[in-house]
Structure formats: structure tokens, C-alpha cells
Design goal:
about 0% strand; 1 helix; mainly alpha
């Protein structure tokens, strides 16, 4: 009777190992299916994310370019204002010199 217990025990161990094997195969299939489902949802998101990232980079580059153009325009404006101020000073000086000049001789009216 002792031998029957050993045989039943060995068979039980074989059945248990088979159950573990088949359950691990089933879990692996489920994980594979889950991975495929996750990829199906994630891939479009990754694509959109990459598109948004490239659009953002392009926008940042354009903003940097515009900032440089604004700084250049501000510098040109400052230089222009300095030139206008200098011209105003020169015009004032010339106006003062012109005012000091004697009046030109005008012909006498005939009459």
C-alpha cells in the first residue's frame, strides 16, 4: 500500500507541475495580448507626442529668431533716434548761424 502512495504522490507532483506549466503559458499569452493592446494605444500617442515636440521645437526656434529681430530693430531704432537728435542739434546750430547773418540787400522798389 505504501507503493501506491508513492505513485499517487508522484502523479500528483506531475499534475501540479503540468498545472504550473500551463498556467505560466496562459499568463505569458495574456501578457503578450496586453502588450499588443498597450502598443495599439501608445503608438498613436507617441506619434502625436513626437509631432508636438517637433512643432514646439520649431516654434521655439521661430520665437528665438523673432527675439533677435526685435533686438536688432530696437538697436536700429535707438541709432536712428540718436541720429535724429544729432540732426536736430545741427539744425538748431545752423538756424542760430543763419539768424546772425545780415539780411541780404533787397532791390529798391520802383515807383
Amino acid at each position: 500500500m505504501n507503493e501506491v502512495g508513492i505513485v499517487v504522490g508522484v502523479l500528483a507532483m506531475i499534475v501540479a507541475l503540468g498545472a504550473v506549466f500551463f498556467s505560466s503559458v496562459a499568463v505569458k499569452r495574456m501578457e503578450d495580448n496586453n502588450q499588443e493592446m498597450i502598443r495599439a494605444y501608445v503608438e498613436p500617442l507617441k506619434t502625436q507626442f513626437n509631432d508636438l515636440k517637433s512643432d514646439l521645437n520649431a516654434t521655439v526656434k521661430k520665437a528665438d529668431s523673432l527675439e533677435r529681430e526685435i533686438k536688432a530693430a530696437e538697436k536700429a531704432r535707438e541709432e536712428t533716434m540718436e541720429r535724429i537728435t544729432d540732426l536736430d542739434v545741427r539744425i538748431g546750430q545752423l538756424s542760430g548761424k543763419i539768424a546772425k547773418l545780415p539780411a541780404p540787400n533787397q532791390p529798391k522798389p520802383r515807383g
